[in-house]
Amino acid sequence: MLYFENDYQEGAHPSILERLAQTNLTPMSGYGTDPLCASAIEKIKLACGCPDADAFLLSGGTQTNRTVISSLLYPYEGVIAAKTGHISVHEGGAIEASGHKVIELQAVDGKLDIDAAEAYLKAYDADENNSHMVRPAMIYISFPTELGTLYSKKELQKLRAICNEYALTLYADGARLGYALASPECDVSLRELAALCDVFYIGGTKMGALIGEAVVFPKGDTSPRIITLIKQNGALLAKGRLLGAQFDALFTDELYFRLGEHAIAMAEKLKAVLKRMGMRFYLESPTNQQFVIVENAAMQALREKVKFSFWEKYDENHSVIRFVTSWATDEKSIDALEKLL
Amino acid sequence: MLYFENDYQEGAHPSILERLAQTNLTPMSGYGTDPLCASAIEKIKLACGCPDADAFLLSGGTQTNRTVISSLLYPYEGVIAAKTGHISVHEGGAIEASGHKVIELQAVDGKLDIDAAEAYLKAYDADENNSHMVRPAMIYISFPTELGTLYSKKELQKLRAICNEYALTLYADGARLGYALASPECDVSLRELAALCDVFYIGGTKMGALIGEAVVFPKGDTSPRIITLIKQNGALLAKGRLLGAQFDALFTDELYFRLGEHAIAMAEKLKAVLKRMGMRFYLESPTNQQFVIVENAAMQALREKVKFSFWEKYDENHSVIRFVTSWATDEKSIDALEKLL
Amino acid sequence: MLYFENDYQEGAHPSILERLAQTNLTPMSGYGTDPLCASAIEKIKLACGCPDADAFLLSGGTQTNRTVISSLLYPYEGVIAAKTGHISVHEGGAIEASGHKVIELQAVDGKLDIDAAEAYLKAYDADENNSHMVRPAMIYISFPTELGTLYSKKELQKLRAICNEYALTLYADGARLGYALASPECDVSLRELAALCDVFYIGGTKMGALIGEAVVFPKGDTSPRIITLIKQNGALLAKGRLLGAQFDALFTDELYFRLGEHAIAMAEKLKAVLKRMGMRFYLESPTNQQFVIVENAAMQALREKVKFSFWEKYDENHSVIRFVTSWATDEKSIDALEKLL
Amino acid sequence: MLYFENDYQEGAHPSILERLAQTNLTPMSGYGTDPLCASAIEKIKLACGCPDADAFLLSGGTQTNRTVISSLLYPYEGVIAAKTGHISVHEGGAIEASGHKVIELQAVDGKLDIDAAEAYLKAYDADENNSHMVRPAMIYISFPTELGTLYSKKELQKLRAICNEYALTLYADGARLGYALASPECDVSLRELAALCDVFYIGGTKMGALIGEAVVFPKGDTSPRIITLIKQNGALLAKGRLLGAQFDALFTDELYFRLGEHAIAMAEKLKAVLKRMGMRFYLESPTNQQFVIVENAAMQALREKVKFSFWEKYDENHSVIRFVTSWATDEKSIDALEKLL
Question: In this predicted complex, what is the ipTM?
Fold first, then answer.
C-alpha cells in the first residue's frame, strides 16, 4: 500500500522523538513554564524577527483558532472567513460555540475573495441598521489554504490595508505554514508574514510534531491573562514540555523549514507524475496538497493500492481526490505510484 | 408627513390598550402564572387547533428565536436558514452567542432555496468527515419572509418531508404571521401551519401589540424546564400579564386575523397606487411589505414628505426602498401618497 | 383577599398608562431611537447628575444583568456576588450562559460580606496558580438587596476602594432602587450612587412600570456597539417607545421618587403592625420587603386571606414569609391586615 | 535538588515512549480511527468490565470535563461540585464558558459533603420558584480528590442513590484514578466504579502518559455525535495515535495499575519519613499527595533543596505545602529527603 492520505499519517520526525526521549526523565515545572518551552519560544521569536512578540504553545489547531479568536473579539463581534475556511466548515462549530459568528464570504480556489470582503465591510459601514448586525472585527485566512493555495504578498498587503481601514485584526491559520513558506510560488517570508499579521500560528502537528501549534502575537500586545483563556479552552498542557521539546527541535537548525522543503520537493515530483499520467487537476496548488479529478471506477480501483483522501463529488461519474506529501514522504513511494498508474 | 416606515411605528391597537387599562390594578401572580396568560394561551391553542400544545408568551423576536433554537439543539448542532433570514443577519449574532452555528444557505426572493437545503443535507450525510462539521438539526424559515414573500403549502410540505427524512425540526418565525395568513396568496391556514411545524411563533409586536410573541410547540413535547431557559434568556417578564392581556385581546373575536386583513387590504391598495405611478418593483410581495426601486434623487425628494425604509443600494443611481402597511394604516394616507407621487 | 405578595402584582402606575395612551398612535422610529426614549434618557442623566453618562433602556432585569456584565468582562473573567445575590440564584444561570463564572461569596443579611470579598481578592492576587482561575473583574451588588437591606455610604465607598485597588468594576443592580433611595436608613443619594459605581441600573418593573430597566454608565465610557449586544440579548425592543414613555413618566415631577416614598411609608406602617402583632422578624429590613418567621400552621391559616411570599423553611415547624409593599399599596389593606392578625 | 512537586514533572513512562517509537513511522488514519486507539479502547473496556461501554481518548483534563459535562446537560442545567473541586477552581471557568453553572457546595477534606448535596437537592425540589434556578443535573466528584482523599464504596453508593432519586448523572474525574485504585484505603475496584458512575475518566497525564485522558460511558449510551463535540472542544487530535499508543501501553500487562502501586508505596514511605520528622499533617491523605503544615521560615529553607508545591497559607506564620509521589518517584530521593530533614 502507498500512503498519500494526509500530512499527519505518521508520528513525529525522528529528531523530535529524540528530543523527547533525551529530556524525558528530567523533572520540569508544568503548564509551559519549563525551559524547553522557553527555549522554543525564543527560537520562534527569532525566526519570526519579532523579539517583542508574545508566543504560546497550544495543543491543537481548533483550540488555537478558538482561543485566539475569542481572545480578540467582543461578544458582539464576528470573524470573516472564506466559505471553505477551516473554521467555517471543519471545526465542529468551535467558533460559534465560543459565541461568535463566522461571517462566511465567497472563496476563490480556497482563498477569501478579497474584493468580496472589502465590499462586505463597505456595505456594513454604510448600513444604517448595522447595529443589529454582528460587527466584523477580524479577517481569518489560512496560509496555505485548505486547497493548498497561497495568498501573494500583494494580496496579504491588501488584506492588511483593509484591516487597517476598517479596524479589523488579521489572523493567519498556519496549520501547514512550513509547506507554504517552502513553496517556490510563495513570495512572502516568515518575517514578512509576522509583520503583516496581528496574530498567526505556526502549525506543528502537520509539520512533523505529534501535536502542537505555536501562536505568535508579533506586537507582543496580548493580555498576560490569555493563559487563563488557554486553560479554559483546554489547550494548556500539564506537561507543556511535550510542546516545548517538539518546537525546540523544529526550530533548531531550521528543521521546520527543511521539512517544508522536502515535502514541497516531493509534491513537485508527485505533480509531475500525475501530469505525465494525464490526470486532470482540480486546481493548481503550489504546496503539498494536490487535487485531481478521477472517474469513480478508477478511484475505486486505485483505492486497493493507494491511500488518498476523497475530497468531494465532482459530478455523477467523477470525484475529486487529494494526494498529500509531507516531511515523511519517501521518494520511492512516488516512483511506485508512477508504476502503478 | 406620511408614515410607511414599518409595522411597529405606532403603539398598540386600542383594544389591547383597553384590556391593559381594565385589568391594570387587579393584583395577579407573576412570571406568566396569571389568569390573563392562561386565557390567552387557551385561545391560541384553540386557534391553532392543537389542544395538547405547549405555548409560552415571550417578550421579543430575537429572544424567542434564541430560546427556541437553543432549547432544541445539542451543542454540536446548528440551524439551517436562508442567507437573508432574520437570524442570519439582523439579530446581532444571538444564535451564535447561544453557541450554535447558523448554516446560511441560498435564498430566492427571501425564501430558503429548498433544493439547496436538500442538497446540503444529502451532502452532509454522505460526507465521511461530517463528524468534524456542525450537524444540521433544524430548518428555520420566516413566514412571511423578511422580503414579504410566502412559502406555498406545497413548499412547506416539502420542507416537512425533508425534515422527516434527515431528522431535523422545522421552526417558523412568525413575527408577521398575521400578515401572511391574511394574504390572498397564502394557501395555508394557521392550523395547517401548526400541523406542519415542530414549533413556530405568532408575532405580536408587529401585529398590534406593544411587545410579545407567542411560541407554540404543537405536539406539546417541550420540557417544562424550558421556563428556566426562558428566564435565562431574559424573556420571562415579572409582569407576564403584560403579554397575557395583549394576546388575550388579540385572540378575542379574531382581532389578530382582522388586523392582518386590514393591513393586507391596505397593502393591495398601496401596491395598486405604486403600480399606477409606474414604480418598478424589486420583487412581487403578497404581504404587507412592498419593495420598489427608485432613483436616488427621487428617493431624497420623497423623504421630505414620506417615511419609508431604505432597504439597500440597487446600483450606483438606484436604491431599493420599502413601504409597509400595518393594522394601523389609514386608507387616507395612501390616497395622500398617490397625490404626492 | 389582601395582597402583599410582591411589588409587581399590579400593572402600571396610572400616569404611566396615561403617557402610553397619549402617545399611542403617534408614529415613531423604532429600537429606542424615538423622542420618548431620548427625553427619558435626558431626564435620567439629569437625575443622576451625570450629563456625560451613557444610558440605555432595556426590557428586564435578567437581561440587563447579563448584557451589562458580559459587556464588561473578558472571556476569562468573572463577577463576584453575594451567595444570595439575584445573579447567583434566581436568573436561571444567565451569567454562566453568557460564559462567565459568578464567584459566590458569603452574604450577611443579603449583603456581600465586604471583608470576605477583600480577602478573596487578596488571596487571588497572591496565588501563584491564579492563571488557572477565573479572574475576578467585577463586583455585583443589589441595592437594596434581595432581603431588603442596604449598603451604607461607607460600605459603598469601601467597595469602590477595593474595586480601585484590584482593578474591578462596581455594578449595582437597582431593580428596586427607588425603594432604597426612599428609605430613612439610606444615606446615599442617586447622584452619590452614580459617582461610586461604574454602572448601575434603575429598575422600572418593580417601581410602577409594566416593564423596563434603565442602565446608566455614569462615565459615558461604553462602546456604542453595546447596542448590538443589547440586541443579541433580546433586550432591544422594536417598540422602544414602550420603555421611553414609561421612564419619561417616571422621571417627570419626581414620580419615581414619590412612588418609592409611598412604598416605604407603607412598609413602615406594615412593620409597625407586624411588630404590634408580636411577629418575629427574620432580619431588620429598612425597605419595602419585610420578612417574618411564622409557625407553619399559622402560615397556612393566613394564606386563606392574605397573599404573601413563602421565602424559605426556617426549621421543622416554622417558615420565613415575605410581605411586600409597593407604589400600589393601599393603606387600607394594611389596616385590614391588622384586623385580621 | 529533590523533586516532589507534582505527578507530571517527568515525561512519559519508558514503556510508553517505546510504544510511540515502535509505531512512529507506520502510516495510520487520523482522528482516533487508528488501530492503536481501537486496541487501547478494547483493553480499557475490558479492564472496566463493561464491554458495551463507549470510550474515547481525549487530550486533557479540562477539555474532558468540559466536553463530558456539556454533552450531558441541557442549557438550563448545572453541575454540583465540591467548592474545592477542580472544575470549581482551577479550570479557568471552562464549565461556565460552556454555558453551565458549577453549583459549588461544601467540601469536607476535599470531598463533596454528601449531606449538603442531598439537602440542596431536596430544597431545590421543594422550592416553588425553582424554575428561576439552574436545575442541578449532575454530580461531579474527583476520585481521588484534589486533596488526595477518597470516597468509600458506601459513600459512592450513597451518591449513586441520590443521583437516582433526583434524576442526576454521576461523573467521576479520575485525573489520578490509578493512585486511588492502588491505595490500601480504597475499597472500590475499577469495575465497581464503572458500575456506579454514568461516566468517568481514567487519567493518563498524571499516570505516566505525556498527555491523554480516557473517558468511559459504561452503559454505552452516548450519542455518536459526541465526536463533533470533542472536535469542537479541541480534544480530537489529528494524530489520535499519540493517545492510542499511550493508553495501549498503559493497559498492557496492567502497567497502569503497577504505576499506581509504585506511587502509593512511595507515598507510604514518604509519609513515614514525614511523620518521623515530626511534621504536622494538614489532613490524612491515603494517596500520592501529602500535605503538611510548616513554618514559613522552614519552608523557605527547604526550597533550596527540595521542589514541592506551596498549597495555601495556613496562618500568619505557617503554610500548607504538598509533596507528591508518582510512577516516576525514585526511592532514593525519599531517603535523601529524610537525611535532609
Answer: 0.96
